[in-house]
């Protein structure tokens, strides 16, 4: 299982935050923001990937001249194409995990891994669109000549899919073009594969079982030029999945989950080892971010997003269509496992997170209401802890956890202003942060949109609502600081606990839902004004304690939502709804 080590990671960040101000020269006119230091990019030997991504060519064969080779060069610690195994125990464990996965695959996994193997690389990701997949297939003219599995092992000469995965001149042509921008030579694994020359797992161990329909195909593969690390299918899976997620962020986590599953399919088939698909995730993500940062591609990106939000894709999603990625908890578990595949975390686990230059673009449509630096902070506070083989690259691509980043911040370092404009729609209108948010900072909710907090939060700086709506959807969603509602609405539909005080101005609204439990418990003082809105009042009996507090000052000027004959009654430590 993957060890995230959040507490130690948080402690390391806190230490950096304490030390950084001391590093700033006294005579400097403008102090450096410690948070900006934490998200500053780190240059690799090849420079920054987003600046040099097109240098992945056959003529560039060193880690400092070829960014793909440089990105994955940690693999050289364990394997040398001339000296062989440098860390036999670790490489054997890598192969053993692959063997165990192939030995325990289900019939459904045999089917899926066969189709993943044979189909065009990008076509295999379409299933991540779930109920929108059929509309995409129709309007992008997407095709495959592998729709079912055979009944017996296929001949050694069985070809890959011969049809083009989708049509760039179709009604969804810009979505297709956006994906294909990653499929140039710079997105190919050829150079690193033929540099490392590491054998595929089924050639290293008889315990790794080839897919039964591909036994003949795999047995006939050439001895030279057919290598394991990194996985080309996985690379293409993340390039396609992350590009579609950029265009259609409403399926962000489902698409990146399918991308990770495409890598898992390669292990299921016996084609690749865990390290190979981990390297494919790193490579594919770096290429995707590079293409999205390229000024030449901005118009295609804009048009692809518009197409994804047009009737061509969204007019009639199939309500009862099969969606293999509808279970959020299952997606989360699978994605996080596939980041490391249980390989050991025996390096330094306390290195601060690094966020690659330009990586924030991967969240540009998923968290559109945040600034570029805020999105970098999200990536920094949701990343995988250090110490895993291969993943501690110089820039930080290996530790990016895009699934968790789509859930918002992992920590608030300082005052974090979230300005959402509901008129822009999509996630600007409403978003949900599912992470357990720590840190010392404050959350300031601005703008007309609606933000929901679902995590078990511990951030200490408190909450301020100035406009729009903030929903507390878990008991400890408010963290550990004071909560102030200067304007807008604070809501909760659960038994929320406020660890300190609560203050509401005359322009603020508190919206509470009647349940059997007290709707909100405020450990400190409640300073009340403005409006109280009560929902689910039909469940009221003869009386109901709605609010508890350490002490109270002031009263709500307006109470809405109560049935006729009901009113509020203030006590020393509670607010009660009573009839009569």
Structure explained in plain terms:
- With 580 residues, the protein is α/β, with parallel strands linked by helices.
- It folds into two domains: 70-324, Vanadium-containing Chloroperoxidase, domain 1 (Up-down Bundle); 413-579.
- The chain is built from 19 helices and 21 strands.
- It has helices at 6-23, 34-38, 49-52, 67-71, 88-103, 107-118, 133-139, 173-180, 190-196, 201-204, 215-219, 232-247, 252-268, 274-293, 298-308, 311-314, 328-340, 372-382, 402-405, and strands at 79-80, 84-85, 411-412, 416-420, 430-433, 438-439, 443-447, 450-453, 463-465, 469-472, 483-485, 488-492, 496-498, 502-504, 508-513, 520-528, 531-535, 543-554, 558-560, 566-570, 574-579.
- Strands 4, 7, 9, 11, 13, 14, 16, 18, 20 and 21 form a ten-stranded mixed β-sheet that branches.
- Strand 1 (79-80) and strand 2 (84-85) form a beta hairpin.
- Helix 8 crosses helix 12 (232-247) and helix 8 packs across helix 15.
- One of its GO terms (cellular component) is outer membrane-bounded periplasmic space.
- Residues 176-292 form the Phosphatidic acid phosphatase type 2/haloperoxidase domain.
- Residues 1-29 form the signal peptide.
- This is Membrane-associated phospholipid phosphatase.
In short:
By secondary structure, the chain is α/β, with parallel strands linked by helices. The chain has helices spanning 6-23, 34-38, 49-52, 67-71, 88-103, 107-118, 133-139, 173-180, 190-196, 201-204, 215-219, 232-247, 252-268, 274-293, 298-308, 311-314, 328-340, 372-382, 402-405; strands spanning 79-80, 84-85, 411-412, 416-420, 430-433, 438-439, 443-447, 450-453, 463-465, 469-472, 483-485, 488-492, 496-498, 502-504, 508-513, 520-528, 531-535, 543-554, 558-560, 566-570, 574-579.
């Amino acid at each position: 299982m993957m060890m995230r080590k959040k507490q130690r990671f948080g402690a390391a960040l806190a230490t950096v935050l304490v030390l950084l101000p001391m590093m700033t020269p006294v005579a400097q006119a403008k102090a450096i923001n410690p948070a900006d230091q934490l998200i500053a990019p780190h240059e690799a030997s090849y420079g920054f990937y987003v600046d040099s991504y097109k240098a992945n060519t056959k003529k560039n064969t060193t880690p400092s001249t070829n960014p793909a080779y440089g990105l994955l060069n940690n693999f050289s610690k364990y394997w040398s194409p001339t000296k062989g195994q440098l860390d036999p125990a670790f490489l054997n464990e890598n192969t053993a995990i692959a063997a165990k996965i192939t030995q325990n695959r289900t019939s459904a996994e045999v089917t899926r891994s066969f189709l993943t193997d044979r189909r065009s690389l990008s076509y295999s990701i379409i299933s991540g669109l779930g109920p929108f997949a059929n509309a995409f297939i129709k309007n992008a003219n997407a095709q495959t000549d592998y729709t079912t599995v055979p009944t017996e092992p296929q001949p050694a000469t069985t070809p890959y899919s011969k049809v083009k995965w989708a049509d760039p001149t179709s009604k969804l042509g810009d979505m297709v073009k956006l994906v294909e921008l990653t499929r140039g030579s710079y997105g190919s694994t050829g150079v690193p594969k033929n540099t490392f020359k590491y054998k595929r797992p089924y050639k290293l161990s008889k315990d790794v079982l080839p897919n039964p329909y591909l036994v003949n195909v795999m047995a006939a593969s050439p001895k030279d030029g057919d290598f394991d690390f990194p996985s080309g299918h996985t690379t293409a899976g993340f390039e396609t999945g992350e590009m579609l997620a950029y265009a259609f962020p409403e399926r962000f986590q489902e698409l990146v989950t399918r991308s990770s599953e495409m890598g898992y399919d390669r292990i299921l088939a016996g084609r690749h080892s865990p390290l190979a698909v981990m390297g494919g995730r790193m490579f594919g993500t770096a290429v995707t971010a590079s293409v999205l940062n390229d000024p030449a591609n901005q118009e295609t990106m804009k048009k692809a997003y518009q197409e994804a939000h047009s009737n061509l894709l969204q007019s009639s999603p199939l309500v009862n269509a099969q969606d293999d990625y509808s279970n959020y908890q299952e997606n989360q578990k699978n994605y996080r496992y596939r980041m490391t595949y249980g390989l050991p975390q025996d390096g330094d686990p306390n290195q601060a997170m690094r966020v690659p230059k330009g990586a924030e673009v991967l969240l540009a449509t998923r968290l559109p209401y945040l600034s570029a630096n805020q999105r970098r902070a999200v990536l920094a506070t949701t990343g995988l802890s250090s110490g895993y083989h291969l993943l501690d690259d110089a820039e930080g691509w290996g530790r990016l956890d895009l699934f968790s980043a789509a859930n918002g911040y992992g920590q608030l370092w300082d005052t974090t202003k979230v300005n959402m404009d509901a008129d822009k729609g999509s996630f600007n209108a409403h978003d949900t942060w599912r992470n357990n948010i720590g840190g010392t900072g404050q959350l300031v909710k601005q703008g007309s949109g609606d933000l929901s907090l679902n995590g078990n939060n511990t951030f200490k700086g408190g909450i301020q609502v100035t406009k729009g709506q903030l929903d507390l959807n878990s008991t400890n969603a408010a963290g550990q600081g004071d909560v102030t509602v200067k304007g807008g609405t604070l809501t909760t539909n659960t038994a929320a606990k406020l660890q300190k005080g609560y203050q509401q101005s005359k322009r603020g609204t508190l919206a509470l839902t009647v349940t059997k439990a007290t709707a909100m418990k405020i450990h400190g003082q409640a300073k009340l004004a403005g409006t109280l809105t009560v929902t689910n009042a039909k469940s009221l009996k003869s009386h109901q304690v709605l609010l508890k507090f350490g002490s109270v000052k002031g009263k709500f000027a307006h109470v809405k939502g109560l049935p006729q004959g009901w009113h509020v009654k203030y006590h020393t430590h509670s607010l009660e709804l009573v009839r009569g």
